[in-house]
Specification:
This protein is mainly alpha-helical. Helix content is 54%, strand content 0%. The protein has helices at 2-12, 15-22, 26-40, 55-74.
């Protein structure tokens, strides 16, 4: 869900437009992006509500696209599409803090 929200904002340029395109509320998109950035421990967007990426966001975009493509491919041709709404984000673990 986090990755789809991230990519939707990148593609459509705002939380509001991404929400319309994904069928989520704007507050849900915002929450997913906050959680993703918290999990990564770095900001991905220059502004909280516009789709302008930081350098980290630009670097992460390609990774997010690859992961989403792999997940879609792993479903196989006859499986229903999984929506970001179907994923329980509370079950994802944050990475351990860097030991630097």
């Amino acid at each position: 869900m986090w990755l789809e929200a991230f990519l939707a904002v990148v593609e459509h340029g705002s939380h509001n437009e991404a929400a319309k395109r994904t069928g989520c509320s704007q507050s849900t998109i915002s929450r997913y992006l906050f959680e993703l950035q918290d999990w990564l421990r770095r900001p991905l967007f220059v502004s909280n509500y516009l789709g302008e990426l930081t350098d980290d966001g630009i670097a992460f975009r390609e990774t997010a696209q690859k992961v989403v493509a792999l997940l879609e491919e792993s479903r196989g041709p006859n499986r229903r599409k999984v929506s970001i709404k179907d994923i329980d984000m509370s079950k994802l673990r944050k990475p351990k803090a860097d030991a630097t």
